[in-house]
Give the backbone structure.
Amino acid sequence: MKRRTVLAGIAGTAAAGFAAPSQAQQDPFGSKELIAAAEKEGSMTFYTADFAETQQEVIKEFNKRFPKIKVAMVRAPGGQLIQRIKTEAAAGKLAADVVNHSDRGLMLEMADLFQDYAPPNAADYRPDALVSPKLWPSATLGWAIAYNTQLVKNPPKTWMDLLKPEYKDKQIGQVIGPSGGTTWTRIMFERQVLGEDYWKKQAALGISLYPSGAPCSDALVRGEISIAPLLYNIIYTKIADGAPAEAIFAPEGVPIVPYADGVTKTSKSPNAAKLFMNWRLSKEGQTFMINKLGNITSLKEPPAYPKGWDPKTVKVWVPKFEEFDKLRATWIEEWNKTYGYRQ
Amino acid sequence: MTATSAAALPATTEAAPAARRWAAPLWVGALLIILAFLVVYPLLMLFFGAVSDSNPVIDGFGKFNPSLEHFVTVLANENVHLAFVNALVACGGGTALAVVIGLAFSWIVVRTNTPFRGFIAGASMIPLFVPPLVAGVAWSILGSPKTGLLNTSLKWIGIDFRFDFYSMSGLILVFGFYYAPYVYMFTASALRNMDPSLEEASEVSGASAFTTLFTVTFPLIAPAILAGSLLSFVVMLGIYGIPAALGTPANINVLTTYIFKLTAWSPPLYNTAAAVAILLMLVTAILVWAQQRVLSGKSFATVAGKAFRPRSLNLGPWRWFTFGLALVYLFIVVILPTVALIIASTRKFLFFKDFAAVFDMKAYGWSHYASVFDNPLTMLSIWNTLKVGFITALVGGTLAFAIGYTINRTHVPGRRLIDLLSTIPVAIPGLVVGVAYLWAWIGLPGGLYGTLTILALAFVARFIPDTVKALSTSFMQIHKELEEASWICGRGLLGTIRSIMLPLAKPGVVASMTLLFVLAVRELGSSLFLYTSNTTVMAVLLLDYYEGGNVGKTAAFSLVQTVILGVLLGITNWLSRGAAQGSARAG
């Protein structure tokens, strides 16, 4: 069951179907015709389940290069966004040109709504980060261990440290297992890599549970909890702003969550949508997200690393997608029982 | 118009030509059609969802596969039982507290000579403008057992006592504080409209002021007290923000937080959520039925054709005590949370090592406000919210007046049904009703989906009960004899409504439109599924900030929202007072 994927050791190329047109290789964002057509369309609608503020930064940066394309954003929490997309699509009123969602399983179920698409640098992406040739990891997030620097005298250095009795009595906070694809990736890593009894040992310490990552990171900064596994991008911007917090990448592995983003079949601005996707997936777009937003990347050769990330020691862990899908219901149920979470 | 005016005429009115005979059924029919569209159709979608495992829009009605599975799952789930009991305890306790506070306040403001009553009246309504999520966040900043500002202060002073608002008692207190204005609104207008001669009679007969208060005054305004407490109980049942912020850390689930979880889990369980929502509706239906049983057959008409001024009790030196009570309430409900929000919105991070850190001025700045206004969506959402608020208040207020009048002042057949249909939405929690509206209205021909109008329609539908109930209290208190006098003088029904009912019920109409405006501005649940990039509203943006984990921006934006609402309500209040004085002079 154990599976570790080492970033440097990834072999293989993207499937042949992803090969990009030759002209695109000259221009990292797409052909001149595509750019001209996109600028003619002038606007597009972007659905996201990510944080509104983060995505606004991305749009702002995109507009520095392509100021003529206005990106309108609709943001809703994960499950609610899926419900809305399905219903709109069924009524023939899907307004989205591009959808950005972290839950690859739920997006794969709706793959029919998306058109064939591949970015110019398709071959540069890790094949294991893709669940469908239509859906692309334009954002990739990684799990770190964060702590409040004012409260924790002896900070944890590994995932196994989070089992130490010195951190008992609700000092550790955690996002609940059933909150979505990102957390499911982390708890799957914990069980498959850190040991079958990892949950049980940790739950015995007494854990504060949070419905999602954002309130958990806020609680950490405020000192309600002292330590928490957090997606690096949630805590990174706060650390950069001077919050009393720090985050480390643990040596046992960094579970990463590649998003599954696509261009809808019914897109009214398909060229603008493709250009937006192309830019997000480009080296420039990925570098921006790594440096400014605390993202990771699914590019085989990362153009940059987040602070504290040593490519020689940090190991990236990507779940096997079949297991990601198959184990989910039963394992989440067990997690709920172990942590006393009422579902 | 003539047809409409004749429609609601009482059966006792002189025999009319055929047009009049048809008018009543036509009028009732029109109201029923509107309610069917706004309430019944979305509700059917909800039932459809609860008894099947399909989405009616995606799968179509063809795949309708009825099963009681969700109901059985819900009924058998002990977590639902626990959430159910928690909800009843939290809302029951909260309502009891809200009645005590609301009633005391309306009495202090309307019937005593406590100083600065106008100020107290205005300020005591402030909690109503505060979105529940903001109230929850403010009280978690104040009352968290580990990092709360109150506890940090107590530690500094050297007192061992610690507050813990992450608890059932914390929930009850915050519910009671924030929903007291509902009770206040109802009881204050009832007290204001009450004929003081009844109280005088009691006192002449030898009863003390205290005995009079409990044996004459409060029983006379019983419908207002009941209506206010019922409404606040039911509104509390449907609140998500407060239990989410205060209950979740203590693992206290109520029905709304449970429903939210069901829709937020991945994959979401909407059909189960619909089933839980129907449970919630049953509870409310029972409460409404009970209220009607209690009130049936009793006359509460206290506004008769005799001129009077509400009597004001001279409290002597005790008036400073009542003033002090009011100040304590205002301090707890307005000042403390506002200070917490101001600190949160101006401080870069909300971490306090000790009490002295609160005064470290280097940690303060305007960066959260700057980034809120740097966001292009902020101004768009403010503008959209105001537009939706006005449309909702206008359309909803008019509809509620029509419904309220039909229910309370006429005997047309079908009015009981109208009453029932216009009460149902109160029981449906916002998040679930949002999905129901989406399911119901997305398929409609025409460009309704994606407009501000569809948001306004959802708000009108969702808040019909609140508005109608608020108005009904005014209607119930206006004695029939006033209308009859007008008819005898030869006025038609429309003329009577215009010259008698509207002016007399005007404080109620203005109050309920204002209430509707406030509720529309705060409403999150039904907005979440119906807004689009061009029609985003403040509540949605506020949730974005909250979910983004940034208390600073959440606090900054909620203060902005509160100030906007406060200014608008101040203007409304000033305008309506001016108009009232004008009409009083004219009369």
Summary: Chain B has two domains: 20-49+375-547, 76-360. Residues 20-49+375-547 of chain B form a domain with the MetI-like fold fold (CATH 1.10.3720.10). Residues 1-16, 582-587 of chain B have pLDDT under 50 and may be disordered.
